[in-house]
Amino acid sequence: MTGNSGLWAYAITEPGGGDALTKHGGGHLSRLTGVAGATVRTVAAGGFTVLVSDVDLAEFGEVALRRNLENLTWLEEVARAHHHVIDAASGLFPLLPTRLATVYSSHAAMAAALARRQEELRAALRRVGGRVEWGVKAYLAPQQDARDTEQPAGGQVGGETAPGEGGAGLAYLKRRRAQLNAGERSARAALAGARAVHEELSGRAAQARLHPPQSPQLSGNQMPMLLNTAYLLDASASDGFASAVAAAATAHPELRLELTGPWPPYSFAGED
Amino acid sequence: MTTGNVIQPGAEAAQLYGTSRAGGPVNLGDILERVLDKGLVIAGDIQINLLDIELLTIKLRLIVASLETAREVGINWWENDPWLSADAGRRADERELRAENRKLRGRISELESGEPNGSRR
Predict the structure, then answer these.
(1) I need a surface site. Which of A73, A75, A83, B43 has the fewest CB within 10 A?
(2) Is residue B69 predicted with pLDDT exceeding 80?
(3) In chain A, what residues touch B28 (CB-CB under 8 Å)?
(4) Contacts of B64 in chain A (CB under 8 A)
(5) Does the N-terminal peptide bond of residue A264 adopt cis geometry, omega within 30 degrees of 0?
(6) Cβ of B50 and A215 within 8 Å?
(7) Is the dihedral of CA A159, A165, A167, A169 positive or negative?
(8) Chain-chain contact of B66 with A97 (C-beta, under 8 angstroms)
(9) Residue B82, domain member (yes or no)
(10) What is the pTM of this model?
């Protein structure tokens, strides 16, 4: 790097917390690469150890960064690289992941920023560090929809209209209305179910966060998402939590539950 | 954790898809949601306000179409989310609601026009 380089921060940990990186000197982590393929290293700054890599300010400086973040291909590459480093390191020592695009022009600037918030960050590390995050999404199960809309013509609802009384058109209309109402009822029941699942799972977690539900384009799943949550757990509680999600899935056939993790504790690193 | 861990507790029951850190590529949406929106914010001396990045307003489209229903039932946490309560968010909401209204109006007239002549659509 030339004099025109900056520092990209991935995560902070207690002083010496990142020793695992160097202890694994001969292992895969010594070759841990971050954004733009740069080697990740630990530096002491502001009373913490920070995972950083060098970035060229021609690409990651303020003006360039603003422009590059608008490029989805660039963003995806950088986001995956950032996540990869945090994910690999979080298995080795407790850490707080930093938000994407935390860049400093110098070590001194980084140290000053961390030193200013030392107490608060230390408390966050105690609260979150070493724990894992699990994500749970609840979708409206598709078979409910299918049942509602594929109700046969001679069914309970259509049968209310005697033949010749209003005709097939009216019968269809009534049936259609009943189907729409039933669809709305099952959506409401599913929402209530999703809330119940969230309450149950929250009770097992150290902390819980609600995220806005994702659109089908983002989730890659055509079912409507009703709930998008994150739970902070001790690593040892992971198996029990997965079983609880499985049990909730059985208890709520109106929902499709998706479990992802373990994640580094992204959703719990910031303030409440 | 195992990869591709799909549990089907019973016929037609919910599925669980487990991913692991050793597993395949993690869903980009899940990653972006976390690295852009969560995580520790420490002011860098290189100041980028992610809220200013236009592309990131894709986030505003993360809201499901059943927004209105969810709000009625009281699931409306996103209203406290700075991403989603920003002006752009309200505009996106309104656009979505208008589109939904148009769709519903179309459906009503479709149903109404089906009534007199008994046609199925």
Answers:
(1) A73
(2) no
(3) 76, 79-80
(4) 213-215, 224-226
(5) no
(6) no
(7) negative
(8) no
(9) yes
(10) 0.72
